[in-house]
Amino acid sequence: MDWKIFFATLSAIFFAELADKTQLVGITMASKTGKPLSVFLGSIAGYALVTLISVIIGTMLSKYIKPEIIRYTGATAFVVIGLLMFFNRL
After folding, report:
1. With contact defined as beta carbons under 8 Å apart, do 39 and 29 qualify?
2. Nearest residue to 25 via CA among 33, 13, 83, 57
3. Residue 43 DSSP label
4. Cβ pair 18, 30 in contact under 8 A
5. What is the pLDDT at residue 90?
């Protein structure tokens, strides 16, 4: 295992998800249901599945598209979505 990549990914995901809608859903579900362990395990399973799909897609795309193109496309999509949300178009 490449620990440098592991910790870089851990840090990036942790800070990207901090105070994100995923946390708000977890807070809401835990307070509504009163079952924090079930919410915790469900959250882990859901995020693990999304991450698995992302890693598979990223691996497949990297065979055909340079990683820089993927990064720039993702960044552009975030900016466009942010602008659309800012101007109440989304």
Report:
1. yes
2. 33
3. H
4. no
5. 81
Question: pTM for this one?
Answer: 0.70
At 15, list the tokens. 């800070």
Calculate ∠ Cα 17-22-28, nearest 5°.
135
CA torsion 81→82→85→87, rounded to 10°? -110
Helix (H, G, I), strand (E, B) or coil at 63: coil
The predicted-structure confidence for 25-36, as pLDDT tens digits, reads as follows 999 999 999 999
Is 82 strand, coil or helix? helix
Distance between CA 48 and CA 10 in Å, rounded? Answer: 13
Q: 61 vs 23, 54, 56, 71, CA distance in Å?
A: 29, 10, 9, 11
C-alpha span between 59 and 51 (Å, rounded):
12
